[in-house]
Amino acid sequence: MQLRLVSSAYAWQQQDTVNQSSNHLFGYQTAQLSVADDHLSFHTYLQGFNDFAGPLSNLGRVRVYNLYARYAGLFDALDVSLGRQAIFGGVGNGTIDGGSATLKLFDSRLKVLGYYGSLPPEYYKLKLIDHGADNSMLGGRITGTPVPYATVSVSYVQKNTRPEEYLAVRRDTLFNPYITEIRPYVNEEQYLGGDVSVEYANRVSAYVRYDYDLNQEQTDRFQLFTRVKVAEPLALTGEYIHREPRLSYNSIFWVFASTTIDETEGGFEVTLPHDWQFFAKYGYVSYGGDDRSDRITLGLNSRLTSLSAAWSTGYAGQLKNVSFTAGYPLMNNTLTPTLAASVAQYLLVPGTQELQAISIAGGAVYRPMPLLSVDGQLQWISNKIYANDLRLFVRFSYLLTHQLNIL
Q1: 207 half-sphere exposure, CB direction, 13 A CA radius
Q2: In 3D, which of 345, 343, 346 has the Cα closest to residue 359?
Q3: With b meaning 16 or more CB within 10 Å and e meaning fewer, what string describes 376-386?
Q4: Is the distance from CB of 279 to CB of 269 less than 8 angstroms?
Q5: 380 and 398 in contact (C-beta within 8 Å)?
Q6: pLDDT (tens digit, 9 = 90+) per residue, 111-160?
Q7: pTM recorded for the entire structure
Q8: Which residues does 320 contact at the CB level (< 8 Å), separation at least 6?
Q9: How many angstroms separate the CA atoms of 63 and 232, rounded?
Q10: What pLDDT digit, counting tens, does each position of 156-182 carry?
């Protein structure tokens, strides 16, 4: 049996409107429990939340993110899961209340995943959603490793969502008002995708992804990333992403005109002595026509610190930003003080006043033993809305592992 408990609290002040604010004390309690033997296992992950000081105090919620049983190694080739579970299947991702099965062949070099289930209700309540057939996700993924340094997969998903019925006022031919029930159509998404991942001799890595929208009969997404180490200290990187707006078929948003987004970025990385690394990137985003944004990113990283600077301009506005993070372990990694700071200047509309935002956060992580950790952080923010905003975050994490010896 393994149980992880995480208790956290976040205190802050929300500026609701001019000269009016409200204090909040968010409290979270998460629990991850798993009980397993060689083949059969039970898993659950839930979270309780309440705002103890805000206008909605004492209206707590419990979200059940997963609750399922799993049998692994059926016929030495099949894994089956039943219940509320997270799905990671290429173009199909999300949470379902249903079942999934993974077939492993040829020493797991070929894996076939299939799943079907209804979508969880709002706030992840512990119940089944109404009209489960109209709020469901069906899909699968085939993943193969033809050579040790490459992985290829093909995936499919069909996702249906049914908006809730509602009452509205309509008028007859004589313009007399009457109440009628509106039943929207079921929104449908249906995608077919494929991706290839390559990692060769720690010198060349690449990732290619292509998603196709079967309902609209057009490309939904194309992505290409590569990193090539041309010499011992120097590596080149490049990425291109083409995205269409992902809209559900039969939804009202599907009838509006939309544009594609094309994003291109290239850069280099230099490995420096003492585990330091310097990187520089230039990229631009095209929003269609002459609308585009350009950006430059510079950074210096090590195992304990990170410093980066970014500049962007164009259709999405102007932004200049410098950020710094650091953490240094003390007392044989028992205590780790942390520090983070960021300064940004941005301009949303040309010809208006440039705005500034500053944030500083300092804290520490205390781990007296591997199973126990306590985190604390004090955050200060200053921008156009908050002149001096102070926030406090604390977290307590505990892990329990025990051999039950009941079977």
Answers
A1: 8
A2: 343
A3: ebebebeeeeb
A4: yes
A5: no
A6: 999 999 999 999 999 999 988 999 999 999 999 999 999 999 999 999 99
A7: 0.86
A8: 310, 311, 344, 345, 346
A9: 49
A10: 999 999 888 888 888 888 888 888 887
